[in-house]
Every structure is written in C-alpha cells, then in structure tokens.
Design a protein that fits this description.
Oligomer: single chain
Strand order of the largest sheet: 2-1-5-4-3
CATH topology of the domain at 314-456: Heat Shock Protein 90
Distance between the termini: 61 Å
Order of helices and strands: HHHEEHEEEHHHEHEEHEEHEE
Radius of gyration: 46 Å
CATH class of the domain at 314-456: Alpha Beta
CATH architecture of the domain at 314-456: 2-Layer Sandwich
Length: 461
C-alpha cells in the first residue's frame, strides 16, 4: 500500500518537540480566551460610547432645532444668523439651515453637498433623523430635524470618539499579544517541568548507550513515573551485571589461553628454525599454523584489553602531547610521516590507551588497506584531532558504524589468509576514545580509501 502523505498535524509533531507543542497549545488557548474577551469588551465599549455620543448629539440637536424654529417664527428678529453662530460656538460642531432652497452654515467648515439626500428628505418630510458619515475624511454624526419651512442640521465630530476606540482596540490587541507570550512562556515552563523525568530518562539512556553503565535515574515520588524510573534502574543494573560477567568471562578465558598459547608460539618458533628440514607440504602447513597462532595471540591480547574496565582512574591521567604520541606510534612504519597542523593543545588523558588507539588505527590500515598514507594531528574545538588516511578500497557508508563493533571484519570476515585482522582493533579504538569522552568516525579519504578521524576533547593547561 502506498504511504499516506503526512498532514499538517503530523509535520508539526515531527518538527516541534513535545515541550514546544505544549507551549504552543498554552499560547493558542490563551489567545482564544483573551481574544474572545477582547472582542466582547470592544463591542460592548464601542456600542456604549457610540450610543451615548449619538444620544447626546440627538438631544442637543432637538433642543437647538426648537430654538431655531422659535427664532424663525419671531418676526421681530432679523433672522436666525446670530442664533446659529451662538449655537455653533458651543463646541466642535457645524450647523446648517436650509430654507427656500438656500443654505446658511455656521461653526466648523461643512460641505453641504456631502450631506446624504435621504437624510435631508426624511427631515423635510417632518421626521428627525441621524446618520454617521464622512466629512472631509473624518467621521461625523449628522442629525437633521424639521423646522418651519426648512431643515436644521447639526454635524457633530466623532474624531475624539474614533481616537478613543482606536486606542481601546490597540490596547486590547496588545493585551492579546501579551497573553499569547505569557501563555507561551507558561506552557514552556509547564512542559519543561512535566517532561523533566523524561529528559532525565533520555540523558540516562544516552549515558548507558555511550558506555556509562553506572547511569541511574533518581527515585521519584510521582506514582506514575516512579515505576518507570525503577524499571529503568533495574534494567541498567541487569545490563551492567551482564556486561561485567561477560568481561570477566572473556578475561578469564584469555588468561587461561595465555599459557597454552605461549607453548604454541614457542613450539612454532622451534619449528620455524628447522623449517629447512621440512618437506614443502610441511612448510606450507607450518606457515598457516604460524599465521594463525600469531593472529590468535593478538586476539587474546585484545580480549584481555577489552575485558578491562573502560573507566579511566584519575591516577592514570597525565598531560599528553598527542602529536608526540602519534609520532612515537608511527615510528618508521612504511615511511609514513606525521603532519602537525597548527599547535594542538595538550590533553589530560591515559597515555597507554592513546598509544593503543593510534597503534590500532595504523594496524587496521596495514591489515585492510595496505598501510596508512597520511597521518595528521590538528586542533579541533578545544581538543585534538588525529586523522589517519589510507588508499585502500574504503568502507561503504552503511558499514561505517558496524566496523566499530567487536569481531567485525567487514567483507573479509570468515576468510583465511586475508591480512591477520582480529575484528577487535577498531572496537578497542571506539572503547578507549569513548572513555576519554571523545568521538571517532570514518569519512571518505582524498587519497581514495578511508579516513578515520579521532577527536579527543579537553585541552590541558
């Protein structure tokens, strides 16, 4: 069956860790709640303020309209002009009076052509009306009331109210944004606290995977998490006992094999001294026995080394010049020279294990790739990097992790007379490098083969 495409939720879970998904959920809930509260608050406040403004303007326009109508009916007065000016002087309003097809305007500037025709028609029919419009690009409220043989219009500015509502909306939007940030922070804090036991479990599992079998989880009081911590600790203890039992078994077997192996080595040495007296078939058999005995001897030595505790005691640590260690290990082997780049720092390390790391890297190149062609020591990220290049067939990418496992000999596994490898050399390299909290990896070499890079951290002063 074809794999289904991942949806947005699946992509979000893949890209965001659980802690941040919890934080985003907190922020989303906070935005929804505060957003709804802000919308309701804005609508209630704007409706109340606008209603109060319209009521005030309508009431004032009705009172002023009656005054204007009385002035129009008073024949002893020359006209309502003075009254209009007095009414307009009371605030930021514009007043207009239409009689006999002509307009009289007072107060704020007003373009009477912007007044809605339906509003004026409704007032002319004898019904007071109001409408919010734009005049000169600003919001205003036009209130029209009928007067004797005309229409009286008051236009009150809504700019102040509009500014108040804009400020209120900005304040509410800012509050929603702040609540989102607070929700994100609270969710992050809550997620971090809730996932702290899982983080400790992850770190402890990583330590166990890197070889620290003493890693344990602290005892937890939580009824749901305490069984998980106890189960992990029991598993780690069982694994530690098994690893130590296997190491003791390998060490015991290696010790038991040393005596008969020494006898075999000496017997083969005697036979080799008398090789000229043997028949061609016996010589060939002697050569095979000699190669296997020496390979067996190296395997026993490697087993003894790998059965030791991989922890480094403080008494074994000393300040080491890695360039000197590598130069000493290379010696005159195949005429390889050591290139020292820059000034590599000194490191606090176990000199014996560093010697073994370099020796095994050189032996591995000799056994499987015809020998090292380039060795380099250089500083890296506060530590020292040792690079060994060969011109052999290289190592496929899918086998670059496997070769560091015990008894892994790649494509040469199971063949006699290959190059004498035991399958433990790179496993010891990885073990000793991890004991120094370093890393080892395999890359493609510019010389056509494999490049093994060992990085030892922690420069010593």
């Amino acid at each position: 069956m074809a794999a289904r495409e991942a949806g947005p939720g699946t992509l979000l879970r893949r890209r965001l860790p659980l802690r941040w998904r919890v934080a985003v959920a907190f922020a989303a809930v906070s935005v929804v709640i505060t957003g709804l509260l802000a919308v309701v608050t804005w609508h209630l406040a704007s409706s109340y303020l606008l209603g109060r403004r319209e009521l005030t303007a309508t009431t004032q326009a009705a009172v002023d309209g009656r005054l204007v109508e009385e002035a129009l009916r008073d024949t002893s007065r020359r006209g309502p002009g003075d009254l209009l000016q007095g009414l307009a002087a009371g605030g930021d309003i514009a007043i207009a009076l239409r009689r006999n097809g002509s307009w009289t305007v007072s107060g704020d500037p007003l373009d009477v052509t912007t007044l809605p025709r339906d509003l004026l028609a409704l007032a002319a029919s004898g019904t007071a009306a109001r409408q919010r419009i734009l005049s000169g690009g600003h919001p205003v409220l036009a209130v029209a009331t009928p007067v004797d043989q005309g229409v009286y219009v008051e236009v009150a500015s809504l700019s102040g109210l509009d500014a108040t509502l804009r400020f209120l909306s900005a304040l509410l939007a800012t509050g929603v944004g702040v609540s989102a940030l607070l929700g994100l922070g609270l969710g992050n804090w809550a997620g971090r606290r809730a996932l702290r036991p899982l983080t400790e479990l992850r770190d402890a599992a990583a330590r166990v995977a890197s070889g620290d079998l003493d890693a344990r989880l602290p005892e937890l009081d939580d009824a749901d998490l305490a069984p998980l911590a106890a189960a992990f600790n029991r598993t780690a203890e069982d694994l530690q006992r098994r690893v130590r039992r296997d190491a003791r078994f390998a060490g015991d077997v290696s010790h038991e094999l040393r005596s008969p192996l020494t006898t075999l080595v000496n017997a083969v040495a005697i036979l080799r001294r008398r090789r000229a007296e043997l028949s061609p078939v016996a010589r060939q058999a002697l050569d095979l026995i000699d190669a296997d005995v020496h390979r067996f001897r190296k395997m026993v030595i490697d087993l003894l080394e790998i059965s030791r505790d991989d922890r480094i005691d403080d008494d074994d640590l000393e300040v080491c010049d890695v360039a000197d260690v590598v130069t000493h290990a290379v010696g005159t082997r195949n005429g390889v020279t050591v290139d020292v780049v820059g000034t590599p720092p000194l490191v606090l390390a176990d000199r014996r294990r560093l010697d073994r790391v370099v020796e095994n890297l050189l032996d591995n190149a000799a056994h499987h790739a015809g020998g090292a062609v380039h060795v380099e020591v250089s500083p890296c990220r506060g530590g020292v990097a040792v690079t060994v290049d060969d011109a052999g067939p290289g190592i496929p990418p899918d086998m670059r992790e496997e070769v560091f496992e015990r008894f892994s000999r790649g494509s040469g596994a199971g063949r006699r007379g290959d190059s004498g490898g035991t399958g433990l050399g790179l496993a010891l390299v990885a073990r000793h490098v991890r004991a120094h909290h370093g890393t080892v990896r395999i890359d493609d070499s510019p010389y056509g083969g494999a490049r093994v890079v060992v990085e030892i951290p922690g420069g010593a002063t």
